[in-house]
Task: structure prediction
Amino acid sequence: MQENLIKIKNDFLSKVEKIQNAEELNSVRVEFLGKNGVLTDAMKLIKTLPNEEKKQYGQDVNVVKNLLEEEVSKKEKFLEEKKLNEEINNAKIVDLTTPNSQEIGSLHPVTITEHKLIEIFQSMGFAVEDGNEIETEFNNFEAVNVPKNHPARDMQDTYYLDNGQVLKTHTSARQNYIMKKYGAPLKVVFPGRCFRNEELDAGHENTFFQCEGMMIDKNINVSNLIYFMKTMLSSVFGKEVKVRLRPGFFPFVEPGFELDCSCPYCEGKGCSVCKQGGWIELCPCGMIHEKVLEMGGIDPNVYQGFAFGLGLSRLAMMNYNINDIRILNSGNLKELSQTKIN
Ligand code: DAH
Result:
C-alpha cells in the first residue's frame, strides 16, 4: 500500500480512538471522508498516476475508504449506546404501579428508639457494638456464668440449632466478646435482636430487642450504677425520673437488681403504662460477677463494673403507645409507621 494511504489510515485511527461524542466524530468524518477530505483528495490523485499503477492504487484507496467508513459507523454505534446508558443510569425511575408514590415509609419504632438510645449513650462516652443473632452456647451461657445444667438456663427457653449453636436469648451473649475486644476500662453498649421460645401474648414475643451495656473501670460500685441509670433514663424520657432497686437474680451479676424507674407518663401517680403502680420495670442490672470478668480476661481484683439489659422493645412500646408486643413484628402499618419519638 502507498505510503500516503498508510499515513491517512493511521492518522484517522488515532483520531477516532480519542473521540468522546457525536460532534467530534462528525468533524473527523468530514476531515477524512468529506468532499474536500484527506482521503477524497487522495482519491483524486489517481488521475496523476501512470496507467500501470492506477489499478492497484484504486483498489488500495477503496480498502482504506471502506475501513474508514466502517470505523465511523462502529464508533457511532458505540457513542449512541454510551449516551443511552448514561441516560438510563441518571434517570429517576418511578414505579407507576405503586398506589401512591408520594407516600414515603418510616423507620420502625424499635429502630428509632435504638437510634435515640445510641445517641444518648454516645454522648455519655460509650462505644456502640453490634452482635450476632446466632451465638455459640459458650457465649450465650457459659461465658456469663450459666454453666451446663444450671437451673438458670430454664429462665430462657432457648432455640438450639442442629450444629449446637443457639439463637441468642439475650444481648448478654456479647459480653465476653466485648471484654476481650476492648479490655479494661471500657464503656460499651450493644443493642440486638433476641429469641426465646415464649408462649405468645400481649407481653411476650419469641423475637424481641434488648440494649445491653457495660461499664468497667477501677473503683466502680453500686452508687455509680444508680447514678448512671438515673441519668441515662432521665435522658431517655427527656425528664427527671427516680429509680429504685429491688434484688434480682441473674447469674452474671452479683449483686443483681431489678431496676424500676418512676413512670415518666404520670409522674408516678398511676396510669395504664405503669399499670397504676407508678413504677415501670425496665432495666435489670447489677455488678458484673467476678467469674464473668475473669472469663473476659479482666482481673476482678483491679477492675469492677456494672452491666444492664435495657428492654428495647418495651421502651419502643412505651414511646409509641403500643400495648401489644406482637405488633412490633407484624405488618400493622397504622401502629408501625409513627415517626415521632415522644
Ligand atoms: N440478660 C438478662 C435477660 O435477658 C438481662 C440482664 C440482667 C442483663 C442483668 C444484664 C444484667 O446485663 O446485668 O434476662
Remarks:
- Residues 170, 172, 212, 250, 253, 256, 284-286, 307-309 surround 3,4-dihydroxyphenylalanine (CB under 6 Å).
- The radius of gyration is 37 Å.
- The mean pLDDT is 92.
- The first helix runs from residue 3 to 18.
